[in-house]
Specification:
Layout lengths: L3 H4 L2 H33 L7 H18 L5 H19 L7 H11 L2
């Protein structure tokens, strides 16, 4: 493993952010879709811990980039989550799940 200077180069950060985005799109999003389809069809929740287990390592990575250090990952992850959620709240881009959203999702799943 390299030093902090080696790890936190601009090129490495851009590369890792791209890998995180790809993982979210290709690994986690399809699983969420499958779980939602199953829930809407059966009204039974499954895989309640699988998605956080896939998602939190990515948040941990983002936290280390946000903090600029690889130690104390819980503190880094919490710092990233707070900073990012504050930014989203200021932009008012956090979606609220409503009955209409669930109906729209159910409609899209049935296609």
């Amino acid at each position: 493993m390299g030093t902090k200077k080696d790890i936190y180069t601009k090129e490495n950060i851009i590369k890792h952010l791209g890998a995180i985005k790809e993982s979210l799109q290709n690994d986690i999003a399809p699983v969420i879709d499958l779980y939602m389809r199953h829930f809407l069809r059966t009204n039974e929740g499954i895989g309640l811990f699988a998605i956080p287990r896939m998602l939190f390592p990515e948040i941990d990575n983002l936290g280390s980039y946000y903090a600029g250090e690889i130690g104390n990952t819980p503190k880094n992850a919490i710092g990233f989550i707070k900073a990012y959620s504050d930014k989203l709240l200021k932009r008012k881009t956090i979606a609220r799940v409503t009955a209409d959203n669930e109906t729209d999702y159910a409609r899209n799943c049935s296609r």
